[in-house]
Amino acid sequence: MLQPPPAQPGMSEDEIDTPALIIDLDAFEYNLDTMAAFCAESGVKLRAHAKTHKSPVIALLQMARGAVGQCVQKVAEAEALAWGGVPDILVSNQVVGMQKLARLVALSGIARVAVCVDDPFQVAQAEAAAEAGRTRLSVLVEIDAGGGRCGVAPGPEAVALARRIAESKHLTFGGIQAYHGGAQHMRTPPERERAIAFASDGARRTVEQLRQAGLDCPIVGGAGTGTFGLEAASGVFTELQAGSYCFMDADYARNLDENGRHFATFRHSLFVLATVMSAARPGVAVVDAGLKALATDSGLPEIWGHPDYVYVGASDEHGKLHIPSESEAPKLGEKLRLVPGHCDPTVDRYDWYVGVRAGRVESLWPVAARGGMA
């Protein structure tokens, strides 16, 4: 059930009902501008990943800064973006099932859509769906870039699948997908460099073998917030699929740069605003944001502006904070910003973004693709 928004434009941040998902608009716009400037300088295109934000509003803000389109993981996400006016969408993994594919093909009337495959069965289903929908569907071959999840082996196996797509009357070969998800959270630069060197080598070999087979490879897509600079420097990737950069989360901030410092290219812009609801014991405060308000798969949240406070435990509706004896304890009713450990599944818990600037609510944006699992 769609919940009423927790705030209205013009309210102060202290008036927002909690728990609420808030965006610091200054930091958010800094992140969008920073990535846009990087892409303009490097010459590599951005196809930002909407599984992070699930919002056509944010997608269009990214595209206004030069992004060529959006990635999604699910057909439901593609639908929410296309209906919201996003004109170019790639489902960056496999879609199996004729009902889902029929929905994806139906979007081709209002947007350019594409999908990835790693098996001839998926090609056959995509072909049948495109034929039934009287359209041509762009299809990319996903290669295993080192993550050991989806994707065919780089080289001949990928070329054979691409040839099968190119021979279809109802499909167009769109390129290759070479995303290494596991590399995004490798903490040190040497670890990330080795992983992306492997991914880039596989992509490069595949592109060359496609060329030898007479097949053009318009898109070589991949990369994420943790490694986008490496893919851009490889000379083989044409599109970057970073998503979390627009928000940042506590886990991405634990990555280290070449100087051994925490990753600081982007700023934290996404927070869960919580209220101190109990302080019955010395050294303990309880906020109204627990497991239902925050994803904890990548660690517990951090308390923005209070590095001395530690979020030590979450239950369904409560978050327990440790307050050192030398620190000033928060007051009952005080609002605290929590930096989620993992932004993507945290966003999926909310119906609304509350955009805040200089302590005032400026905007309300629906999380349009929330819960889009199909």
Entry keywords:
374 residues, alpha/beta, Lyase, Ornithine Decarboxylase, Chain A, domain 1, TIM Barrel, 2 domains, nine-stranded mixed sheet, 24% strand, globular
Can you walk me through this structure?
This protein is an alpha/beta fold. It has 2 domains: 113 residues, D-serine dehydratase-like domain (Lyase, Ornithine Decarboxylase, Chain A, domain 1, Beta Barrel), CATH 2.40.37; 205 residues, Alanine racemase (TIM Barrel, Alpha-Beta Barrel), CATH 3.20.20.10. It is built from 9 helices and 17 strands. The strands form 2 sheets. Strands 1, 10, 11, 12, 13, 14, 15, 16 and 17 form a 9-stranded mixed beta sheet that branches. A hairpin with a 5-residue loop joins β10 and β11. α4 packs across α5. 49% of the residues are buried.
